[in-house]
Amino acid sequence: MDLFNLRGKSVIVTGASSGLGADAARAYAAYGADVALLARRREKLETLAREITHAGGRALAVTCDVSDEASVRQAVERVIAGFGKVDVLLNDAGVAIPGSVEELTTDQWDRAMAINVRGIYLMCRFVVPHMRERRYGKIINIASVNAVLGDKNPTLARHSYNASKAAVRGITIGMAASYAADNITVNSIGPGLFESEMTEDTLFAHDEFMRMYNYISPASRPARRGELNGTIIYLSTDASSYVTGQHILVDGGLSIV
Q1: Helix or strand or coil: residue 112?
Q2: What's the CA gap between 22 and 14, in Å, rounded?
Q3: Is 179 tagged catalytic?
Q4: Helices 119-134, 69-83: crossing angle, 10 deg rounding
Q5: Structure pTM?
Q6: pLDDT greater than 80 at residue 197
Q7: Are 40 and 63 in contact (CB under 8 A)?
Q8: Catalytic residue from among 31, 161, 179, 213
Q9: What per-residue confidence (pLDDT) applies to 219?
Q10: 94-99 — which CB contacts under 8 Å span 24+ positions?
Q11: Relative to the CA of 197, which of 20, 21, 48, 173 has its CA 20 to 30 Å away?
């Protein structure tokens, strides 16, 4: 059980104000970690921080725009000042903007890249030197099954999401190779369909899509809340000490059919 022990560890979760990020933050706290909650929506962060604290955990709410260099630098500095270190970085912040390359505006494309790719680059830019100095770190980047799968339904095209999440896989491989000698592991996770703010008013609201998804998926259903947490905790602990550069799909088997 000590392999999955996070007591005494300090974790940063981006995109922590809702959805998979908030669920992961709760799981980290349950496993004993101090959790820094990063996102733009201060009120939601403070609500979650109070929830974790009332449950006996330790949480720090830090307003941060992951696409803004100054905001990221200040957020990382605040976490280190508050917790003394960063052991684990979960890059979960992301957006899924609908549209094909014909439909997307340049601003929409740039926004997807700024949050989904630049955000990971900036967080790692300021966290990795600290991890290298301490010769320890766990970085988990949330990609998507859509990094390897598209959707032929024209109303569901999300080409900037496909591209940006494939880029997450690329930066994960590069960083893993560069920093393994510093005892830093870098892995990515490709979630399938999970209910969140990103999907509840889009994919989950699309009855035809949901019927087809449930028919095609070997699991015959979307993921339940919390079903990503086991993989996140595994990659954040010493249970995965010899695992780096990997992309784990948590998709109910969707990618195999």
Answers
A1: helix
A2: 9
A3: no
A4: 30
A5: 0.95
A6: no
A7: yes
A8: 161
A9: 95
A10: 94/15, 94/119, 94/142, 94/164, 94/165, 94/198, 95/161, 95/198, 96/158, 96/161, 96/198, 96/199, 96/202, 97/158, 97/160, 97/161, 98/156, 98/157, 98/158, 98/202, 99/157, 99/158, 99/159, 99/160
A11: 173
